[in-house]
């Protein structure tokens, strides 16, 4: 406990770094994943804008990158990170890798939730003269909003988990704090303090996500 008290400044700094990494990743990866998911949904056979070439290429790319364990993925994209943001280590490099990894996972979640929208609703909108883009914006996304919110909540939890893994390579945040000051210094109290705060973050996110999804589903 004495060690944790001495490290409280570092502890709260690490907590802030985790929230920063997760928030920026969810913003960037969430937007990119939503776009890819919409493209996957719209270009699949029988959908609003069927295009076999675009669908197959994007589907293969997502299927290729999505299963890669993050600890391997973050090392594999280091050269690309250095090329684009100028560094392969540190918080910004971690955010770059997190955003890429999250975008592929989010794309698949978005597509899976959009395909659950009733075809009858879409056909009704078509019969009234609505175009593909208008249907996507005013019918498909609103109809799938509740499940999408739950999907993004799940991704938030996964990003928190990945940010902790990034601590193993000096990525900052609570994972790095637990590993450097807890595991290496044989201070289980320090490690468990980081674990418990991560659990608190996840519980808050899950509670908020569930509430928002419930509101969306009641619309």
Automatic annotation (TrEMBL):
Membrane topology per record: Multi-pass membrane protein
Pfam families in the record: BPD_transp_1 (PF00528)
PROSITE patterns in UniProt: ABC_TM1
Domain of life: Bacteria
Residue intervals of the ABC transmembrane type-1 domain: 15-208
Subcellular location: Cell membrane
Residues passing through the membrane, by range: 20-41, 53-77, 83-107, 144-169, 189-209
InterPro entries membership: AA_ABC_Transporter_Permease, MetI-like, MetI-like_sf
Swiss-Prot/TrEMBL keywords: Cell membrane, Membrane, Transmembrane, Transmembrane helix, Transport
Family statement drawn from the similarity comment of this UniProt entry: Belongs to the binding-protein-dependent transport system permease family.
Stated name of the protein: Methionine ABC transporter permease
Organism, scientific name: Leifsonia stereocauli
